[in-house]
Design brief:
Elements: H1 8-19, H2 26-35, H3 41-51, H4 57-60, H5 67-82, H6 86-109, H7 117-132, H8 137-146
Helix pairs in contact: 5-6, 5-7, 6-7
């Protein structure tokens, strides 16, 4: 634990320097959750992303700030899902479900004329499609992009 008043960001940086982390895998992630408690996973992900260190797919989760980040995060989770046992598959699905729920909540809060609405609706479609059949997501995405749908080609 850090000293009282020491920021989570400072404690994160100190720990990563201490272990000389080159990437954030699930073991480092669990250690960070314990060291920085109480901290939400979403806030911790934000702090970790700011370090610039690479993260494994299960740590990175679903990145929804752009199609350029959403696509590779869902494709990486597809690969993780394909190579996993049943318990791990449930954990991968849980990450996507949480992201979908977050996107649904964000969409509900948007004004009807919000210019980002179409983008968020398309992102939700991608996540729902992933959840329906994770092992064909990347093929579906290639077809979707080929149709000239939203998102980078």
């Amino acid at each position: 634990m850090g000293t009282k008043g020491e920021s989570r960001k400072a404690r994160l940086t100190a720990y990563l320097n201490e272990i000389q982390a080159e990437r954030i895998d699930e073991a480092v992630w669990q250690a960070l959750l314990k060291r920085l408690t109480p901290v939400s996973e979403s806030y911790l992900r934000k702090l970790v992303r700011a370090t610039g260190l690479p993260m494994t797919p299960m740590v990175s989760g679903v990145v929804q700030d752009s199609f350029d980040h959403l696509a590779p995060s869902l494709v990486a989770l597809e690969a993780e899902y394909e190579k996993s046992d049943a318990e791990r598959r449930r954990a991968v699905r849980k990450l996507v479900i949480i992201a979908k729920d977050h996107a649904t909540f964000a969409l509900r809060r948007m004004a009807p004329d919000d210019e980002r609405r179409a983008m968020k609706e398309e992102m939700l479609l991608w996540m729902r499609t992933w959840l329906e059949n994770p092992t064909v997501f990347s093929s579906w995405l290639a077809l979707r992009r080929g149709q000239g749908s939203l998102g980078p080609g």
